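Narrative summary of target 7.
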Amino acid sequence: MPASTTRFVLVTGASTGIGRACALDLAAHGFSVFATVRRAEDARALEAEGLPHLRPLFLDVTDGAAIAAAAGTVGTATGEAGLWGLVNNAGIVLAAPLEAIPLDAFRRQLEVNVTGQLAVTQAFLPLVRRARGRIVNMGSIGGISVIPFVGAYCASKFALEAISDALRMELAPWGIEVVIVEPGTVTTPIWRKGEEAADAILSRIDPGVVSLYREAMERMRRVVAAAETRGAPPEVVAAAVRHALTARRPKTRYLVGPVARMRWVLQRLLPDRLRDRLLRRLLA
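Modeled conformation, tokenized:
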């Protein structure tokens, strides 16, 4: 990357969890960070950190007008320097059996986690190109290895893998690096929020269908909750993002945490049916 006195970075979904950790980490390391949020209280919480290089910015990745307005604001603020880094982190988890998930909920999962990421990338790419900057997409081990009842979420992360690969090749002529970060279990609120969303979805599904899956889903919830207490802190993911933005030659993919590495090995080495049985046993 070219030398610059001010390195501007945009981090989406910075209200909590990984996005917040990334915004705080980058601001603490001298980046000038635009941290996107959707609620005023989240903006105030970021401002309360007292980091002079951290600026909250309101943005909903599913709102085209909001994206355009944010791109205009950032373009004015960065001027000729452009955008050193774009961290596409915003995302949600919706958990339900694929047999029964309402299609509007499935579309919402893809709209936030896939279409929203591309919409933000399209809007901010001219600023990234101006700085010959980098794009970091927040994927998941769920984009490589699927577990039951989060098929919609995993589908969105598989799609983000494809988008990242395609962008990496398409933007190579301008020297723009595209990286995807693939965390395993991380101690963030996203899974708790996902449980709340799952309860809302299940309340809309035929009770007879729900009863077919309820016991298995409850087992999975207990396993996920237990794993979350042992998960990697979001600061570990933030460190990987910082490396992706600063390394002379970043990795194309960053597996983060022991769970991600274990599932990657299982996915690559085991036959499908054997892996299915092992994952079902782990979730039992």
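The two ends are 48 Å apart (CA to CA).
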